[in-house]
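Hi there,

I know you've been waiting on this one. I reran it after we fixed the sequence typo, so this is the corrected version. Both the input and the resulting structure follow.
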Amino acid sequence: MNKPRTRVTLVLRIVLVINAVVFLTASLFNFGLHVPLGFADLSFPLPVWQAGIGEAVIGLALLAAAVTGRSAMAWVAFWLSVVGIAFGLSSARVQGPAREIHLVLVPLAVVVFGLLLWLWAQRHWRDTEALGPGAKQ
């Protein structure tokens, strides 16, 4: 197996796990979780349980993609996360810490997208080289 591709796959899996943890944490906060920090209470001011269900589904899809390492599953989980992020950022009900978590999810999604594109390009170039010069695809 190609070493750079293996490293990128490992980085992708790590980023998918981080992304899943953020989505699952947001899900718990949308179900009403309060984390007392002594001087403050970490929670969403207006928990939305419906959003919590969506975030749980997205988080589990991201986690499944990370565990299995299947690129098709990673693409599906990525697009689910993009829809979830866009929906959250466009909602007027998402304020305060809930909006800030979505702002953390945006760069994570960009990194996942870049890694998935890199792996796709590597696979495409490898397959093209395997066909040899002058071969039709």
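Quick highlight: The beta strands are 35-36, 41-42.

Best,
R. S.
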